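Recap quiz, item 2
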Amino acid sequence: MFSGKIYVTYSEVNAFYTRAEASLPLPGFIRRNIGGEPERPRKVGSNRRFMNRRLRNALKGLTAPDDDRRRRAMEPFVRETFQIFIRYLYRYLGNEVECEDVLEDVYADIWENPDRLQEVDSERQLLRTVYLYYMRKRLREVYRRMNRHLYLSQNDLTNLTAPELGTLDTMSQSELKHALGRALGRLKARERRTIELWLEGMSVRAIANELKTTVGAVKMLKFRTILKLKEMMSEYCPEE
Amino acid sequence: MADTNRKIQELLSDYAGSLRDGCLPVFLQSLTRQEGKTMTCSDEFWEAAEVVRVLNGVGFADKAAIADAGLFASRVDANVASRLKKAKSSPRARRTNGTRSMTKTQKTEKPI
């Protein structure tokens, strides 16, 4: 009977990626600045289990009923997940210091109430669960104190700083890099240049000087290009 | 951000810039009532904001990931220790410092 699992060997996936990338090469900027080629998934199927053994062991320790045992399990868990979580948080805050402050509370919340992590069996699921049940609550609190001085409602402020998970948010960092690289490759030269210059850290005025146009035109071009990117990247979003 | 009546593309550009430079509060405080409404009503803004966050994560998140995980683990441990200490101190012991809730104080007051 068909069990619903499809296993593909590493060499098959690797061969597929090699063929796909030969036809659609990543732009040089992505190779240079965003960390090169994406990681290759080892298995393709509905029950993917992409979690290394150390992380799985750390998670096991976290679900122990004893407080002290859970406390001891926090260190390996932090070591295994720090890079993943802080990169994810950086998307929403853009500030290293705030990211670390929020993440510290997130880990302490996980220690206090790790029930949500009991059923987690892949890195993607871990990130998703941690965002929905631990990070989001803390992200909402970051700018809440400012709200009385703002013209945004609490709901809109929450949507801006701690949004619901969109299609792109569920993708891992390596998948995003890959999708972004391919989407950038499909843009017109001028659109791609605008995004690349912005990613290199240039201001809108500097980009306008570089492209020999006005600041307003660059803002409009960037806005339209970003919407286009959203559409293109959604095509690469893998189904759950 | 001196302009007080920015259009949606300008708002997005400023949001993206503030996220990239790590100064989101400056952007939030620069919003006027009208701009807040414009943002709220625009679906395109929210869609584009999602991509901006992704670009921010893919392009710049490595800056945040250079911190020492071991050092950070000790920070987390200190936070956990502090919560453990709080949990161990019973609510009864905490109340012995003389503070009382308003309702209790009111109950003991004699009516005039």
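Residues 67-93 of chain A form the longest helix (27 residues).
Chain A touches chain B through 70 residues (CB under 8 Å).
End of item.
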